[in-house]
Every structure is written in structure tokens, then in C-alpha cells.
Specification:
The complex is a heterodimer. By secondary structure, chain A is α/β, with parallel strands linked by helices. Chain A has a domain of about 260 residues. Chain A contains 15 helices and 17 strands. In chain A, helix 1 crosses helix 3 and helix 9 packs across helix 12. Chain A starts with about 30 loop residues before the first strand and ends in a 9-residue tail after the last helix. By secondary structure, chain B is mainly α. Chain B is about 60% helix and about 0% strand. Chain B contains 19 helices and no strands. In chain B, helix 5 packs parallel to helix 7. The relative contact order of chain B is 0.11. The chains are: A alpha/beta, B mainly alpha. The interface between A and B is large, with 71 and 42 residues.
Chain lengths: ~575, ~350
């Protein structure tokens, strides 16, 4: 450890909610009991869902890959223990929607037999790209809560120089202690993981940030980091939401990650402590990500603590292991009380992003109060870590003034919940912002769809017109070639004439009102096009214009899609501890 | 077993509007105590009448608007408005003055705009200004500090006087009343006296003033008694800042600008302009700075905006006090700046995280 204490910076706002962390750190972590069946959703991370590569009835070993990554931003899924695949189908997943998704169900055989992967203790000889591949194949995702594939954030690209690797041991959300326990009990794995990450990123220095409400973890990490060159351990004053990536980058480096940008833009990469340990296991031991530390807490359990849980384990078994008082539970939360989401049922599997399960009793998280009018007290603006004006955002969201709400930088909101927390009027501010974001996305989608439809329609019209003209041209040529023709007619340069002729023909031939109308429209279009084409007389002009416009619009469309994807991703990821895409 | 699934955040701070309003009312107690000590029981009677009127009017309008009654009545906002109006009234105002002022504040200035949070003007100040314009005689018949007069009323006599306008035998209303120090200063300055002459005549030495048959209403820094009342509000206000119920920006800006501008004129011409301390500790300066201008509903939102807003009130207070037609001006200044609030909010926004400044 480099001994000189590093300078810390400040970020605006933040709150000091009741910690409630002590309850779950009373006893050392333990292994969760092996359940009879494990249900593994294929979408446990940010990005595309994995694709199953096993079939029902197949026997699998512990650590065997059962679903492979689908695309770049995706992660494979591995069997957490040995057993038999008994079903592949839709099962309820822990998600705010409460919906089901494709999952693989394994009947455990109790033998817990490992498949062997090659371990790489001499990673310094391996090139970073190969290391990233191993990490990717091991299914390692950010374990701070968001679940962004970790290997992507170890790939800064050749252009960017990484100055600081920040290891996030802040764990600022109340109740959660899984990182705390990991730092206390297994600092060595974290430090080894950091070595690998530094090698992969070629980062100049590394700072491990720990909030000062975790003195035991700090001591433990300091001890392990003693003598490690270039690694600082920073004890940062406890304040929520310090674990949010952009806020932590500010605290450690003093730099503000630009809005819409990534930590990478200021030469920083941020990973969670648990992710570091998972990377160590993937590289050194050849073990894919099949389990994680989960905090089981809340007044609804008599024995709150941390358990090392295999993915796919049903939550009710964990709760039972912690002596749940089922009839006391009023709300079941996955994640922390500030940003976690409420679950419909206990019968859901633990997944890669399950850092904490809170079985809250009635009124444990605050007494319900009626929503009152905003008194403009400004408490929300005082605590906003992004320095937004939550009050104004609230008024405009409420009034559905979607332009105004974007003018007030709605999309910089990380949904940390500080404003709702302090609001004396008990206004569900974050809900209003989510509503406004959703409305804007829907609007954008519709606009995009309309624009595409219009484009398609225009292309269609153009093609019809071009084909028609080609036909006409051919016919004229044939006519000219015929000897009976008195004089060779010059190929018509004016589309309008042809169309008019066609219209006459159409009326006389079919005598149908519909056909006439159609022809009229075509005639009008042809006139317009003839006017447009007037300067350039060549016949292939329409082809050229189409060729030119088509790629341009495709590129535009691609750019637009990418942009919206980034915004959405940004929104989805930035809200959680440490997972930001590095592209 | 399906659970409720409200969205995050699930944990909420133990705070509420009622708590905020109650803390503000609590912080008024030192000032009110000083008030009662120096000006008798009248203010307590006024507060009681105001509270009853405010809650009845609020209940009536809520019923007409078909809104839930309990949450709004128990939020404490109507009670606070009532107390603030009562504190600005002369202690021996007849009961109907209080009733009209409070009813106007609650019904017209607050509820007709949509109730709590929607009123553009501070209801208490609207009520006060309406009374001052409509009933100037009643509103300026103040009483001198009780210690300075032989004719002071006890609690029962006060209640009887306020309700029925009858005085105990041998006391006339004129003997009881006296203009406020700010008012007297203004009147005498208009007569061509200098500040020192006025202070000498109306204060300093009690024996001398007795011979001159005037009541010594000037104290060491402000008006006699007034300086203590102001001190009480200052104390309560500082406690509110400590409790983080209000931020320091508005009071500091308002008192600072009032001090600065009065100091400027005092140094230019001490004979015709009162001292800065006199301005700070007279009239409604302290009450206004900590309890009225800080009303979040009608004040500017951002910190920089709050400073502009507070400075505006301080300067207008001085300007109207010195050159305007009314002795005190906090109410007018607050209302004027209430009008500017949307403008201030529009131009003073904080720079959002990750956006380039400027």
C-alpha cells in the first residue's frame, strides 16, 4: 500500500439515512444450503439474454456452461452445481415487472462435482485481450448491483489511457453488507483481482474506496494491501449515494464525468470489490461466476446475515435459513431500500445482481404519510447529488411538459431517491421522473417509427415511379425501332408528359375511379420529380439520388438508435454502484 | 404470498410539513415571550382569535372545495399564518381587525390560489397589508412597553377591551396608545428634527422625558422593548437555521443589505438617518428576516436566488421606511419580492453535475 493518504473531494448533496447495517454483520458469513432445484434465468445482467446450449435431460457438472453469451454486451450462464437439466422454460424472475422469462432448471444431485477449467496463475504473461476473454467466458458481471459485463469495462481501447482504477467498496446503501463482509473475510481475493484488473487496464494507480462506517473492512483491506505498490485505500466519509460511479469518481479524483459520458472519459475505470474477487476466481482458479454473497436482512428475519449463495437458489430457502417470520413481512426488497425494487413473491431465484434481500416488516422503512402539496422548501435541491432542481422537474413532469423537463436535464437524474427521501410533503418525486422518462422514450419511439414509415413510403413511391419511367422508355424505344413509325420520337425527357399520357390511357382502359385517382397522384408526383430533375437530364438521376439518400438515412438512423441505446443504458447502469459501459 | 411492490426509494426520512411548521412555531416562542413581557397580554389574545379564525376559514374553504380536511388542517400552515399576522397587529387591536385580516389571508391569499404551495404571495403579509391600507388608524394605534406607562391592563381587562372595546374606569384609549418608534421617528423627522434630538426627547433619560411629558420609547439600540422582541426572534431564527428548517441565505441577505444601506445613509448624514442597528432591531425586521421572508412557498428556490431575494427585501424595506408613506415596510418589501420570485428562479439555476459551467 502506498502510505500517503490521498486527497478526497466533495460531491453536492447526499443524505445520511438510517444505516441498519449492524444487524447483518453480527456473525460471519456462511454457505447457503443446497436447494433441491436451481432456477437460472438467462438474463441476469445488462445486455442481451444468454442462449441455452443444453437440453432437458442432460447431466451437467458444476461450473459447466449451460447458456452462452449472445452478442458483445451479454454474459454466459454456468451450472452452479452438478445435476440434471429438468426444464427450460419461462419462470418468474426477480424483476420490477414481476414477469417470467426463459430460465434453465437444474435438479441438483448433491455431488457438487466440478468441471475443470484451466487456471492461470501466471496471468502477467497473458495479454490483456486473452484475460478479458477468460473473464467474459466466466460470466463475470458487475456485482455492485447493475450487472454490466465486467470484461467490457476492462477494455479501454487503444485510444484511452487509464490513470486511476477505482475499486468500489463504498456500499452506501443502507442494510447491504455483502461487500463489507467480503472485505472483512476475503481481502486477499480482492487484492489479487485488482492485480489482474490493473494488468488488463494498464492503470497507473488504484484506489480502494471504503466508507468510514466499515472500520473492520478498512482494517482488513489495509492489512492485505500493505506493501502493494500503487494501491491506495481511501476511507471516505459515509454519505449516500457515494457508491454511485460518477459521484465516487468525483470524490476520489475531483473530476466530473461529463453528462452522457463515461468514467473512461476522465481516465477512470470503476469496479466493485466483489467483481474484483470474482475476476480473481475466474483467472486464478478457473472458476466461473456461479455464486455470490447475499445479505439477508430486515426485521422480518430473526437471524440476519450474509450467505454465499448459488445462483438460482429460491429466496424463500434463504429466508428460511435466516429464520423468517413470514407473516410479518410487508415488503420484500431486492437491493437496498433506496434503489432496490420490491418483489412480488419469495419464490424467486437469486441472480447475479442480487446483493441483498430485505424482508421488511410494516413501518420498518418509514410510516406511510399522505402526499401533501409541494411547499417549495428546496430540501430536494439541497440533497440532489447531480445538482438538479427536483422541484422544477416535478412540476413539469406532473404537467407532462416533456420539453421543459428535458431542459431541466431530466436524463441526468440517477434515480438515487434522495429527493423523495427528504421531501416533507412525501411526494414520490422519483416516480414522477420515471414516468416522464418513460413518456419521452415512448414519444421518441413513435416519432422514429413515423419517420421510418414516411421514409419507406417515399422510397416506395420513388421506386414505382422509376420502374414506370423505365417501362415507358423501353416502350418508346421499341416504338422508335418499329419501321411503321413516321419519325423517330425523341425519348421523353419530361416525366409529366408520360404520366399525362398514362392517365389518359388508364381512364380509357379501365374506367375505374380508383385507378384514376391513383394515376392522378402519380402524375402529380411525376410532375414534382420532373421539376426536380429538370437541370440534370440523365436518365439515371433518380437512381443516384436514391443511392445517396439511402445510406445517409441508414447511417442517421443507426446513429440515432445508438444514441438512444446509450442514453437508456446510461440510465439503467449509472443508477447502480459501479457498472458503466466502457466502449 | 404476493407483496405490495411500490417503487424505490422505500426508506423515507421521518419528516413532514407538520413537523416543519411546528418547528417554526416553536422558534417563535422567545419572541412572543418578549412581546408579552413588554406589551402585555394583547398579543396572546390576538393569537388565539387568529388561530380560531384561520382554522375555521381553512375548514370552510376545504369543505367548499371538497378536499380532505384533516391533512390540510393538521399541516400547521394555517396556524403559522395566523400567528404571524397576530404578531404584526397592535396588541390592543379590536377583535374584528384580527378576524378580517386572517380571514382575508387564508381565504383570498391562500385558498383561492389553490391552497398550500400554490399561493404566489405570502398570505400573512397580504392580510397585514390589506388591514394597514383599510384601517390605518387601528393599525397604527400601538401601545408603549408596559413598563413605561402607569396605565397597563391585566389579562382580563385586555380580553374585555379587545372583545368589547370597554376599558376599566379612569383609563382612556388615548392614554394607552402611542406610535411605534419607527412611526415617531418618521413623524418627527418630517417635522424637521434631527435623529439625536428625537432620541433625546423620546428616550435616553426617563426622568427627563417625564418632565417633558412624553413616553421614552427609544432604547439603547432600537425602540424600547422592541429590541428585546427583535432579539427573541433572532434567537428563534438562529435555532431554525441550526435545525436546518431554513437556510441562512435569506435572513443574512436581508439583514445584511438592510444594515449596509442604512449604514451608508447614516454615515452620509447621521442627523437625518437612523443608525443601522435601529433599523435591524425595530419594527418587523427580525420577524420578517427569519419567519416571513423565508416562507419557502413564496421565496426564491436556488441559493443564489435566495440571496438576491433577501437583498431585495432588505433594500426595499429601507427605501419604503425612509422615503415611503408607511412607517414599516417589511410587508411591502416581501410582497414586492414575491412578485419577482418566478423571474429570479428563472435566471438563477445551479449548474448540473457533468455539464460545463456557464
Amino acid at each position: 500500500m502506498t502510505s500517503a493518504p490521498i486527497r478526497l473531494w466533495d460531491f453536492h448533496g447526499g443524505i445520511h439515512p438510517e444505516q441498519n447495517k449492524r444487524q447483518s454483520t453480527q456473525e460471519p458469513s456462511a454457505q447457503a444450503r443446497m436447494p433441491a432445484t436451481l432456477t437460472l434465468p438467462l438474463h441476469q445482467h445488462i445486455g442481451a439474454a444468454a442462449e441455452p446450449i443444453v437440453e432437458v435431460g442432460e447431466t451437467v457438472l458444476k461450473g459447466q456452461k449451460i447458456a452462452s453469451a449472445n452478442g458483445y454486451v451479454s454474459a454466459p450462464v454456468h451450472a452452479p452445481t452438478s445435476g440434471k437439466i429438468v426444464a427450460i422454460g419461462d419462470y418468474p424472475i426477480p424483476h420490477p415487472s414481476g414477469l417470467s422469462a426463459l430460465s434453465i432448471v437444474i435438479e441438483t444431485d448433491g455431488r457438487d462435482e466440478w468441471v475443470r477449467y484451466a487456471a492461470k496463475q501466471d496471468y502477467t504473461e497473458t495479454n490483456p485481450s486473452h484475460l478479458r476473454n477468460i473473464i467474459r467466458e466466466a460470466g463475470v458481471v458487475g456485482l455492485g448491483g447493475a450487472g454490466f459485463p465486467a470484461f467490457i469495462k476492462l477494455n479501454p481501447g487503444s485510444q484511452k489511457k487509464i490513470k486511476t482504477l477505482i475499486i468500489n467498496g463504498v456500499e452506501c446503501e443502507p442494510y447491504i453488507t455483502c461487500d463489507d463482509m467480503l472485505m472483512r473475510e476475503d481481502p486477499q481475493s480482492i487484492l489479487e483481482g485488482i492485480r489482474i484488473m490493473r494488468h488488463a487496464l494498464q492503470a497507473e494507480r488504484c484506489v480502494i474506496a471504503i466508507e468510514d462506517n466499515k472500520p473492520e473492512a478498512y482494517e482488513s483491506i489495509c492489512k492485505a494491501a500493505r506493501g502493494v505498490e500503487g494501491v491506495n485505500v481511501a476511507l471516505v466519509p459515509t454519505r449516500y449515494p457515494q457508491g454511485s460511479e460518477k459521484q465516487l469518481v468525483k470524490v476520489i479524483t475531483g473530476k466530473e464525468v461529463p453528462s452522457n459520458g463515461l468514467a473512461l472519459d476522465v481516465g477512470v475505470v470503476c469496479h466493485n470489490v466483489s467483481t474484483a474477487a470474482a475476476i480473481y476466481r475466474a483467472i486464478h482458479l478457473g472458476q466461473p461466476l456461479i455464486s455470490r454473497m447475499v445479505t439477508v436482512t430486515g426485521k422480518g428475519v430473526k437471524r440476519p446475515r450474509n450467505l454465499e449463495v448459488l445462483f438460482g437458489t429460491p429466496m424463500d430457502e434463504l429466508l428460511a435459513q435466516c429464520d423468517v417470520e413470514a407473516d410479518q413481512i410487508e415488503r420484500l426488497i431486492m437491493g437496498g431500500p433506496m434503489m432496490g425494487f420490491a418483489l412480488h413473491d419469495t419464490n424467486l431465484p437469486v441472480i447475479k445482481t442480487t446483493n441483498c434481500i430485505i424482508a421488511a416488516t410494516r413501518n420498518e422503512l418509514g410510516v406511510e404519510r399522505p402526499v401533501m402539496p409541494c411547499i417549495r422548501c428546496g430540501a430536494c435541491a439541497d440533497v440532489c447529488p447531480v445538482k438538479l432542481l427536483p422541484q422544477q422537474l416535478y412540476w413539469y413532469s406532473r404537467a407532462k411538459e416533456l420539453d421543459k423537463v428535458q431542459e431541466y436535464d431530466l436524463f441526468d437524474c440517477i434515480e438515487c431517491g434522495c429527493c423523495s427521501y427528504v421531501c416533507p410533503s412525501n411526494i414520490p418525486l422519483v416516480q414522477f421522473y420515471r414516468f416522464a422518462k418513460g413518456a419521452i422514450w415512448t414519444q421518441e419511439q413513435e416519432q422514429k417509427k413515423a419517420a421510418q414509415a414516411r421514409q419507406r413510403h417515399e422510397f416506395h413511391q420513388m421506386r414505382i415511379e422509376r420502374e414506370k419511367q423505365e417501362r415507358e422508355a423501353r416502350r418508346a424505344k421499341k416504338k422508335a425501332a418499329r419501321p411503321s413509325a413516321a419519325a423517330p420520337k425523341a425519348p421523353p425527357a419530361d416525366g409529366a408528359k408520360i404520366a399525362e399520357k398514362r392517365r389518359d390511357e388508364a381512364i380509357s382502359q379501365r374506367d375505374s375511379a380508383a385507378a384514376a385517382r391513383k394515376a392522378e397522384i402519380q402524375a402529380a408526383l411525376a410532375r414534382v420529380q420532373a421539376k426536380k430533375r429538370a437541370p440534370q437530364k440523365t436518365a439515371e438521376a433518380p437512381d443516384k439520388t436514391e443511392e445517396k439518400t439511402a445510406p445517409a438515412t441508414t447511417a442517421e438512423r443507426a446513429a440515432a438508435t445508438q444514441k438512444s441505446a446509450i442514453t437508456k443504458k446510461d440510465n439503467a447502469t449509472s443508477t447502480h454502484d459501479d457498472d458503466q459501459p466502457v466502449q | 404470498m404476493p407483496f405490495n411492490t411500490p417503487t424505490s426509494p422505500h426508506q423515507l426520512a421521518p419528516t413532514s410539513i407538520t413537523r416543519v411548521m411546528m418547528l417554526v412555531i416553536l422558534a417563535l416562542i422567545p419572541g412572543i415571550t418578549a412581546y408579552v413581557w413588554f406589551f402585555g397580554w394583547g398579543v396572546v389574545v390576538n393569537i388565539s382569535i387568529a388561530l380560531i379564525t384561520a382554522l375555521s376559514c381553512e375548514a370552510l374553504i376545504l369543505k367548499l372545495r371538497q378536499r380532505p380536511m384533516l391533512p390540510s388542517l393538521s399541516d400547521g400552515s394555517a396556524a403559522l399564518t395566523a400567528i404571524l399576522i397576530a404578531l404584526t397587529l397592535p396588541p390592543l387591536s379590536p377583535w374584528w381587525i384580527t378576524v378580517i385580516g386572517v380571514a382575508f389571508a387564508i381565504i383570498i391569499a391562500k385558498q383561492l390560489y389553490g391552497g398550500l404551495g400554490f399561493n404566489p404571495f405570502n398570505p400573512a403579509m397580504v392580510g397585514y397589508v390589506m388591514l394597514l391600507i383599510s384601517f390605518p388608524r387601528e393599525m397604527t394605534s400601538w401601545i408603549p412597553p408596559t413598563a413605561l406607562t402607569d396605565n397597563s391592563l391585566d389579562f382580563l381587562e385586555t380580553v374585555i377591551f379587545i372583545l368589547f372595546h370597554t376599558l376599566p374606569d379612569g383609563i382612556t384609549f388615548d392614554a394607552l396608545t402611542e406610535a411605534t418608534p419607527l412611526d415617531s421617528l418618521k413623524t418627527h423627522l418630517a417635522l424637521g428634527n434631527t435623529v439625536d434630538e428625537i432620541r433625546e426627547q423620546l428616550g435616553v433619560d426617563e426622568a427627563a422625558s417625564r418632565i417633558l411629558s412624553v413616553i421614552p420609547i427609544f432604547g439603547t439600540i432600537g425602540g424600547k422593548g422592541w429590541e428585546w422582541v427583535g432579539g427573541g426572534f433572532l434567537l428563534g431564527g438562529l435555532w431554525l437555521i441550526y435545525q436546518k428548517v431554513i437556510s441562512w441565505h435569506i435572513p443574512v441577505a436581508m439583514l445584511g443589505s438592510l444594515f449596509a444601506i442604512s449604514a451608508l445613509f447614516y454615515f452620509i448624514d447621521p442627523a437625518h438617518y437612523a443608525t443601522p442597528m435601529f433599523h435591524l432591531f425595530s419594527g418587523a425586521a427580525m420577524l420578517g428576516a427569519f419567519f416571513i421572508a423565508t416562507d419557502p412557498v413564496t421565496a426564491a428556490a436556488s441559493n443564489r436566488g435566495k440571496i438576491i431575494y433577501g437583498c431585495g427585501i432588505g433594500i426595499f424595506t429601507y427605501v419604503i421606511r425612509t422615503w415611503g408613506g408607511y412607517p414599516d415596510a417589511v410587508a411591502f418589501a416581501v410582497l414586492l419580492l414575491n412578485m419577482c420570485t418566478p423571474l429570479i428562479d428563472h435566471y438563477f439555476k445551479s449548474s448540473v453535475f457533468g455539464h460545463k459551467k456557464g
